């Protein structure tokens, strides 16, 4: 078995002895800095970069780029370019996979975890057993040579690129010199794209996709916003204070995450957007589209989401009860109205959210759920748009309003304590 060729950390090149940059490498570097960095994402940039290398004479069969991410669910994202594939393949790895055998027995683990700068294996000269299981797959595809190297981002974060060829004899010295020469420029472009993706990921995670898009588009000044008609969703977990007093912190956090996963999942699966979590409560909106002037479509989506959430909650409660754990109950309120959707806050700390009387009213309606022993209550505005699914449960006073309001509940029985016979 041929030994690997590992690079020395002290040298500026990823491949020792690489000659100086030539015209072919200069053309690739210029393309990266002038055009590649403006690519709309990793996939098109990766495809164009690899085809540039091939046009410069580098005989690629496959290339892989693996980037660690700052993401609540994903640890690493990898982009697979193949010479005969129509598009770049994307694979994500969840947190925890860094301890899996698949990862720990890969060349990338040697580079990321063990600190190697580069590896080279002449696959055509090797026979089993291979140092890395992936080599069996590559040899079956006709690969003759494999090179992997690290690309450092600012702060020392390690990313990995690998290149495979099927040319007899493998990569030439000139091939590797070209790749080595363009590596710093490629790293700068990859970091730019990674930061762009990071900004999108963080905003999607913490403020939602629709709001994140508005912020990235430049809507960031305090006081800016727009009036939006929407169906408002407000849900609250009942008995949370008692649970918080009794349960250990880890169990309480897991309980809340499971509850919000059900509520938020139902909202987002039907096009709603979560505005914020407030303790054990959640505020979300279903904006009215231009094609939905009466709000009937938005109200239907919100009601469907509420029923799905209650069904999933009932299933989760059955599991919790079987394990001797406390079950959960919640109230969901829906109201349709106009809100101001925009930036509010102090000079240095802003919140992009919805405000207005409609927000106050939906929270007050939710407060009636416990008193009326209802899981779902809506305003008359929602009931007018979805009359066939709702029934009046009377007029009731709410805090902040002089006159009582009429509220409505679901006709169908969903989850627990929901129906018309209470």
TrEMBL record:
Listed CDD domains: CHD
Domain of life: Bacteria
Annotated ranges, domain Guanylate cyclase: 231-366
SUPFAM superfamilies reported for this sequence: Nucleotide cyclase
InterPro entries from the UniProt entry: A/G_cyclase, Adenylyl/Guanylyl_Cyclase_3/4, Nucleotide_cyclase
Listed name of the protein: Adenylate/guanylate cyclase domain-containing protein
């Amino acid at each position: 078995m041929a030994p690997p060729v590992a690079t020395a950390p002290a040298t500026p090149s990823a491949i020792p002895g690489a000659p100086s940059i030539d015209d072919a490498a200069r053309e690739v570097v210029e393309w990266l800095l002038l055009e590649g960095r403006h690519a709309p994402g990793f996939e098109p940039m990766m495809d164009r970069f690899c085809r540039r290398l091939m046009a410069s004479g580098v005989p690629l069969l496959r290339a892989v780029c693996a980037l660690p991410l700052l993401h609540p669910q994903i640890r690493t994202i990898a982009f697979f370019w193949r010479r005969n594939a129509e598009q770049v393949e994307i694979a994500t790895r969840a947190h925890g996979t860094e301890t899996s055998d698949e990862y720990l027995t890969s060349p990338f683990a040697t580079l990321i975890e063990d600190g190697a700068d580069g590896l080279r294996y002449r696959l055509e000269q090797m026979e089993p057993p291979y140092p890395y299981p992936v080599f069996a797959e590559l040899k079956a595809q006709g690969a003759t040579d494999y090179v992997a190297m690290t690309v450092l981002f600012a702060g020392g974060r390690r990313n990995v690129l690998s290149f495979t060829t099927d040319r007899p004899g493998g990569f030439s010295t000139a091939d590797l010199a070209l790749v080595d020469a363009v590596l710093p420029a490629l790293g700068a472009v990859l970091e730019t794209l990674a930061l762009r993706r990071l900004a999108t990921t963080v905003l999607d995670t913490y403020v939602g996709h629709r709001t994140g898009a508005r912020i990235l588009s430049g809507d960031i000044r305090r006081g800016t916003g727009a009036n939006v008609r929407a169906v408002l969703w407000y849900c609250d977990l009942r008995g949370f204070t008692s649970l918080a007093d009794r349960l250990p912190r880890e169990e309480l956090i897991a309980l809340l995450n499971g509850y919000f996963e059900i509520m938020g999942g139902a909202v987002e699966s039907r096009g709603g957007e979560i505005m914020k979590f407030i303790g054990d409560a959640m505020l979300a909106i279903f904006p009215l589209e231009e094609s939905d002037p009466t709000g009937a479509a938005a109200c239907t989506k919100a009601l469907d989401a509420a029923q799905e959430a209650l069904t999933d909650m009932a299933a989760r409660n059955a599991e919790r009860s079987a394990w001797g754990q406390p079950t959960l109950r919640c109230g969901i309120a829906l109201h349709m109205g106009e809100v101001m959707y925009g930036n509010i806050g102090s000079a240095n700390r802003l919140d992009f959210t919805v405000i207005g009387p409609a927000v106050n009213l939906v929270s007050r309606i939710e407060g009636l759920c416990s008193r009326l022993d209802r899981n779902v209550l809506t305003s008359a505005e929602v009931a007018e748009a979805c009359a066939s699914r709702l029934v009046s449960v009377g007029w009731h006073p709410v805090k902040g309003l002089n006159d009582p309001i009429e509220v409505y509940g679901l006709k169908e029985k969903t989850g627990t304590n929901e129906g018309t016979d209470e």
